[in-house]
TrEMBL record, chain A:
<dbReference type="Pfam" id="PF12225">
    <property type="entry name" value="DUF5981"/>
</dbReference>
<feature type="domain" description="Methylene-tetrahydrofolate reductase C-terminal-like">
    <location>
        <begin position="47"/>
        <end position="134"/>
    </location>
</feature>
<dbReference type="InterPro" id="IPR022026">
    <property type="entry name" value="DUF5981"/>
</dbReference>
<protein>
    <recommendedName>
        <fullName>Methylene-tetrahydrofolate reductase C-terminal-like domain-containing protein</fullName>
    </recommendedName>
</protein>
Automatic annotation (TrEMBL), chain B:
<dbReference type="InterPro" id="IPR029041">
    <property type="entry name" value="FAD-linked_oxidoreductase-like"/>
</dbReference>
<comment type="pathway">
    <text>One-carbon metabolism; tetrahydrofolate interconversion.</text>
</comment>
<keyword id="KW-0285">Flavoprotein</keyword>
<dbReference type="Pfam" id="PF02219">
    <property type="entry name" value="MTHFR"/>
</dbReference>
<keyword id="KW-0274">FAD</keyword>
<dbReference type="GO" id="GO:0009086">
    <property type="term" value="P:methionine biosynthetic process"/>
</dbReference>
<dbReference type="GO" id="GO:0035999">
    <property type="term" value="P:tetrahydrofolate interconversion"/>
</dbReference>
<comment type="similarity">
    <text>Belongs to the methylenetetrahydrofolate reductase family.</text>
</comment>
<dbReference type="InterPro" id="IPR003171">
    <property type="entry name" value="Mehydrof_redctse-like"/>
</dbReference>
């Protein structure tokens, strides 16, 4: 089972606060958008850039290279390392001690995500509704996709759970 | 009466469960349906439960309908990508299946095909949103229009007892924001934890949009008790319940477990915001009428087959 390539929970090696801080340096801007467009025109540069992203994010977050990064909305804890790749919160099989249903010796990624997001003051992010991922983007650079504005639709823009907002169905794209 | 009618009338709703057989024997469904007919508003037909291969929930639902029991067709994200999920939802609509229950599903690792690909193309919340968009807006996840719209009610599940407990009401609120109209819970053995979760749901305004059915079931032996405590993910059997079962002579454990189930139904029914119960009695379907009767729940008026499938 140790060689099973399927996703398994990964506890991030980077503090959540540092993640939020670093995001400020990576936030989309016109310069990054131009860099991303340039990379996409140069396959070798794109491959090198993507490899660097892969190595960094695998080491820190157990990145699975879905190409559409959820980290900023999940306390910098990767939901794609959940064996069920759930992007909207934990399944019902979490053990009483917070263990993953599928790999009981590992802590559920969502238990970790919720702890980290709340400790960093980002608890309301957890109420965002994440849309289905685009499977075509796997193995692509999520930074390039993000800088190109392709991530704008990954999750709903505001938590819809407070009573005064009502609970509107959000199937709309 | 149907589940939809029970919800509309504000009547205490009762659902049960039918697990389809491993083989191609339609009578296995019919026999279970006949035990439940007249006592429940609807019965869930499980979808390859525990990641073990069974007759499909779609076929099982049709067989249950033929036997006079309204089905709740379970559909998991484990084995199907978004194309197959939407196809099965359309099929359920075409066959007049009045309710669907959408869930992530147990991982194949502990099923009878641990070497299978876990699909999980959508998660349960995304599947609920997809289903509601199909039914209410008549479009697929791709944006393409469908012709005739399906009419099923959209259900979801939640486990109020699994960590992180403080997040469990919010997680259901997400599913309800996505479009879930009713929810069935994991087994309730600890009514206080359940009531606290429900209070949080009321605060969030969830119970105004979504009917909550409390999951219940009898623990009929110490072996099953031990299995539920240690062998099934997400089930919380408090020490008190175990002590009670151990406190009676071996010959009376089954009876005590049934009594505990009856009491749990009565206690959850008194929690504000509970719309009904979901009775899970695997292999003990014959005992469901007795449990309901002792809990003071009257038999349901017979299902009119003509009404099935035209509810939406």
């Amino acid at each position: 089972m140790t060689n099973d390539a399927r996703p398994r929970p990964f506890r991030p090696r980077l503090g959540a606060r540092l993640g939020y801080a670093l995001h400020a340096g990576l936030a989309a801007n016109p310069l990054y958008a131009r860099l991303a467009a340039w990379l996409e025109r140069r396959p070798r540069a794109y491959r090198a850039f993507t490899a660097a992203e892969r190595v960094t994010k695998q080491e820190l977050f157990g990145c699975r290279m879905c190409g559409q990064c959820a980290l900023p909305a999940t306390g910098y804890t990767c939901p794609m390392t959940c064996p069920k790749q759930l992007r909207n919160g934990p399944c019902g099989g979490v053990s009483p001690t917070g263990g993953c249903e599928v790999y009981p010796e590992l802590t559920c990624v969502w238990v970790v995500a919720i702890e980290r997001a709340e400790a960093a003051g980002h608890g309301t992010d957890l109420d965002l509704l994440h849309r289905p991922i685009d499977q075509r983007l796997r193995e692509q650079s999520s930074w390039v996709n993000y800088w190109q504005g392709r991530d704008d639709d990954l999750w709903t823009s505001a938590p819809l759970l407070r009573r005064e907002l009502g609970l509107q169905p959000v199937g709309k794209r | 009466m149907s589940l939809r009618a029970a919800f509309a009338a504000g009547r205490f709703a009762v659902t049960a469960e039918i697990g389809p057989p491993r083989g191609a024997d339609p009578d296995a469904i019919t026999r279970k349906a006949e035990l439940l007919r007249g006592w429940v508003d609807a019965a869930n037909v499980t979808d390859n439960q525990g990641a073990h291969v069974r007759m499909s929930s779609l076929a099982g639902s049709v067989l249950a309908m033929r036997a006079g029991v309204e089905p709740v067709m379970q559909l998991t994200c484990r084995d199907r990508n978004r194309i197959a999920l939407q196809s099965d939802l359309v099929s359920a609509g075409a066959l007049g299946i009045p309710n669907v229950l959408l869930l992530s599903g147990d991982h194949p690792r502990f099923g009878d095909h641990p070497d299978a690909a876990p699909v999980f193309d959508l998660d349960s919340t995304q599947l609920v949103a997809t289903a509601r968009t199909m039914r209410d807006e008549g479009v697929l996840a791709s944006g393409r229009e469908i012709g005739a719209r399906p009419g099923w009610l959209v259900g979801a599940v939640e486990n109020p007892f699994a960590p992180p407990r403080s997040f469990r009401a919010r997680r259901l609120a997400k599913k309800v924001a996505a479009g879930a109209e009713f929810v069935q819970t994991q087994y309730v053995f600890d009514v206080e934890v359940f009531a606290a979760w429900l209070a949080r749901l009321r605060d969030l305004g969830v119970t105004e949009k979504c009917k909550v059915l409390a999951g219940v079931g009898p623990i009929r032996s110490l072996r099953v008790c031990e299995f539920l405590r240690s062998g099934v993910p997400g089930i919380h059997v408090p020490d008190e319940a175990e002590r009670r079962l151990r406190g009676v002579p071996a010959a009376r454990v089954a009876e005590e477990g049934v009594s505990m189930c009856v009491e749990t139904i009565q206690r959850v029914a008194a929690v504000p915001g509970v719309a009904g119960v979901h009775v899970m009695a695997f292999g003990y379907e014959r005992g469901v009428p007795e449990i309901l009767e002792r809990a003071g729940i009257a038999p349901q008026p017979a299902v009119s087959m003509e009404g099935l499938g035209h509810a939406g």
